[in-house]
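Schema walkthrough. Field components (list of strings):
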Amino acid sequence: MADNLEPTPQPADAIGAAVAPPRRSEWRRFARVFFGRKLYLIGFIIVVIIILTAIFAPLIAPYDPLVTDLYATKQGPSSEHWLGTDQIGRDVLSRIIYGTQISLIIGFSAVFASAIVGMLLGLVAAHFGGWVFAVIMRIMDALMALPGIILVLLIAGLAGGGIGVVIFALGFGAIPGQCRMMCGLALSVKQNDYVLAGRAMGMSNWRIMLTQIFPNAFPPLMVGITMGIGGVVLGEAGLSFLGIGVMPPTPSWGGMVNDGQRYLLQNPLLSIAPGIAIMLLVFGFNMVGDGIRDAVDPKLRGVL
Amino acid sequence: MEAPQNNVLLEVKNLKMYFPITRGLLRKKVGDVKAVDDISFEIKKHETLGLVGESGCGKTTTGRCILRVYNPTSGDIIFNGKDISTLSERRLKEHRRNMGAIFQDPFGSLNPRHSAGGIVSDPLKVHQMAAGKEMNDKVAELFNLVGLDPGMMDRVPHEFSGGQRQRIGVARALACSPSLIICDEPISALDVSIQAQIINLLEELQEKLGLTYLFIAHDLAMVQHISDRVAVMYLGRIMELTGTDELYENPLHPYTKALLSAIPIPDPIAERTRTRIVLKGEVPSPINPPSGCHFHPRCQIAIEDCKVTRPPLRDVGNGHFVACIRV
Amino acid sequence: MSIVLDVQDIKTYFHTEYGLVKAADGISFQVNQGEIIGIVGESGCGKSVSILSVMQLIQTPGEIVDGKVMFDGQDLLRYTANGAEMRAIRGSKMTMIFQEPMTSLNPVLTICRQVTESLELHLDMDRQAARERSIELLKGVGVPDAERRVDDYPHQFSGGMRQRVMIAMALSCNPRIIFADEPTTAVDVTTQAQLLELMKDLVTRQNTSLVIVTHNLGVVARYAQRIYVMYAGRIIESGLSDDIFNHPRHPYTVGLLNSVPRLGERHGTRKLIPIYGLPPNLINMPPTCAFLARCTEKVEKCSKEPWPALRAVGDQHYISCYVDIKGK
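Field assembly_structure (string):
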């Protein structure tokens, strides 16, 4: 504004006339960009619906997903079973609804666990540099050199199936990515003089890492985390499809696709319906990730 | 302040800062960047020592060694009679409150995710010098001191202009009531019309609080304006060190002469009568600096001997030090 | 002396999400053949936008709303920004040197490739001739060992050397006018002196006009014959270099000169007089003078009447101010 005077210690009238610049809310800007584009909005709505479905699954689902009805197997869509029933007569819609819970639990836990470990390692590597950096990053390189799916198969195969193992396997596989991303961002944040200022005033290493570097490196990482959830859900589906993921009879989307593929010609909906659910979830989280990226910093487009 | 016998606040003796150049997976050392190569000077209480030179001359590194952000390769940094160059990090922390630092970039030197008040109170928190209401009062007092409205304490840096941000930086430097402030290019990122505001603020604070400044800059005109004495650096070494007026009126080192003549003056008439010494070539790399006197390949009065011997920084009278065998 | 470039009342506006920014609001200036002029102002005053408008290098959301750019008898604004006519002029008759020598050269092409580019494009030279000419040009701007270094990549050159390459490129097609946008801001003082002397020698020899755009008053004092001082999108004072620096008449110019220390003043003899306040935000500006809030000379008329147009206060000396501080 033209009448903004910078307060200066000398002339009293200049201080008196000091007008603070208008406040700009970061959140409002974020919301404007994020909700300003249709695709991001659609993604956001999908994610919200999926989360609500998972939370209220017992209220929404018309049937118990585990109850079998051998008199009504492999049925097509009907008014009683909107998406039909599977080979042992369980309601497909109910199983998909309950499957949402499993997918999200695995997605969130694996991604958050890997993010915490990965980011911590990345932060430490970037902050201390030298041999610490070399050791951590070489280990990450080695992990990255193993194709992710083989690593995951190895862990899941050795430890057997189950939700816990799936979370561990998928989370472990995601650590190198999170670590590298954090390390790169932290290295660039570290160049700023406020980090230097912190050291000059005697801040401890942890304080510098957690209060100076981390808050500035985190926003772009949100993108990776959000998109990571989609990736992990896909990974879980893959494992369950291969039969080493979530153990039956727990409803899992990947497992349902696997079970259904044998009856693809008789009732394609058995595989296609959970497939579409997976697709929607991945799409939703990716769009939200894209939206966050654009809203946090448009310059990141094409980088992340 | 603890009372030392003389009025010297900071003494730097034979300071060297070499950064190793490493190569390969095993980080084998293949050489050194001699950023600061054996320099000595002292700063008296309440004075401003200007440190000038072109980029890469080691002036910023010198400042950071004094702040102990870098651990010097060798040499002594004696602050108030106590050598701080080898203090352990824990002992150092106690000392750090005696020094403040102002940085060049008013955008990069303030954490964009913290509020202005939070940034200014950081040193107080680190040194546990105040808390709660007391800290709030102290921060408000600092805001007033540097000419900022304390009502703007909870705003984040991007809501301030460049000049205001630099004031936040000054307030942070003053938070622990230090006696020495290292000002590293504090105005070069600011608009011309704003620079004078910050310079005047620094001068007033010095008078009011009895501060001592190490003023690092490449703008010789500004250094002349604010400094009592000036040290000219070139490739990690001090070439000349003397009182400000003496330096500008009677420069002895050929590099100082060239540097002074290269500074443009905003006065066409004065410019026309001035002869400009245009130096040949460019500043050599500090990885492989010239032998003997670092300046000899560009010097107009260099002789054979200049390629061999490193000229000592010697006193030619009245506290005028110069490192040149031809003077 | 013939006028090479006559810019008349250029208006370049940026349509931003926060409102209309009048980055250049009625800029007029003339450049004579072989003349060096300086355009001086602080960041955001519209000095770069003005010359980018002349070259039609303004990008969206910017738009040249109005004005005339007479260059060698043709009105450049009647050509489309990327049309054949404009492209034939840009880079050959009218060239530009940018501030950042690191980013204005393409890092993946050799120096030779980049210098010969415009020679081949505008002068229809063949490969070999263009190469020989570029070696000649590099020698002319003082790149040592030019025959060998012409095949180097930009990162193998220092900042000062890169800027010499930029100068060689700007001169390659014997331009009528060169715009230098903060040409020495990114280099050290001694290098700055080298580059400025070099540019001056070259343009004087070729009788080319040079427009130096800078925030550093000292840089133009030595070389420019005439100075234009800009503030908030307008020229607020113009005149011969001696007049501007020694007898400034606009309060802003006076303030600017008072706020910088001069080399050679004895230590402690003069306190700097800063200009208080901040440069104005260019969004939705009031019609009154943009310097009003910071002005120490303001009179009642200033806050009532709109920002005045430039008026003559002496030989070739113009100010846009109701007050004329001649006595000071």
